[in-house]
Amino acid sequence: MMRVDAKDMGADLKEVLITKEEIDAKLVELAAKIDAEYAGKDLLIVGVLKGAVMVMADLARALSTPVTMDWMAVSSYGAGTQSSGVVRILKDLDTDIKGRHVLIVEDIIDSGLTLSWLLSNLGSREPESLKVCTLLRKPDAAKVAIDVEWVGFDIPNEFVVGYGLDYAEKYRNLPFVGTLAPHVYGG
Ligand code: XMP
Ligand code: MG
Description:
Elements: H1 6-9, E1 13-18, H2 20-37, E2 43-49, H3 53-62, E3 67-75, E4 88-91, E5 101-109, H4 113-123, E6 129-137, E7 150-154, E8 160-161, E9 177-180, H5 182-185
Parallel strand pairs: 2-3, 2-5, 5-6, 6-7
Antiparallel strand pairs: 1-9, 3-4, 8-9
Helix pairs in contact: 2-3
The structure holds xanthosine-5'-monophosphate (XMP) and magnesium ion.
GO cellular component, one term: cytosol
Protein name: Hypoxanthine phosphoribosyltransferase
EC number: 2.4.2.8
């Protein structure tokens, strides 16, 4: 099968940070822990569009727990690489989460602003439980007091793309997580 790989990004890519194999193995590991937590429970996983599409798809298939899936789209970034701190709902859940066990699935936590806003927004809808699983977490997330139950990888403070993550909507379909060359984003 033909695959996009690092070479196809040419000069845009600085390096591959996390390979497809490492992501796959990590999701199996996380799925086992999530299965243990929600055994016998009815679980709704909520993916945050668009970045979490790949994590949702692969994590959901690694889980043994039957789940239902819903999606939310929020915007905190505009087109650049800096968090604005202003979160807008672009698409709300289709599901009433009152009394449900809800797991938010994120691609990346950077400043933590998006997630802390999401936790208070969804928390106010009175779910039975509300937890978070993220594939990636950057160091700044430590500055915000938020509980993240399951973290795939703690990564350095660099802009990353691939596996759902974009720069100006590009690179989401790369099967790995890579760092961009500074010339791409003017760094
Ligand atoms: P905050 O700062 O609110 O950011 O925790 C969360 C959202 O910001 C986006 N984000 C990134 N997207 N590469 C990306 O492609 C990155 O390195 C990056 N850092 C933050 C992402 O949409 C995430 O949900
Ligand atoms: Mg983005």
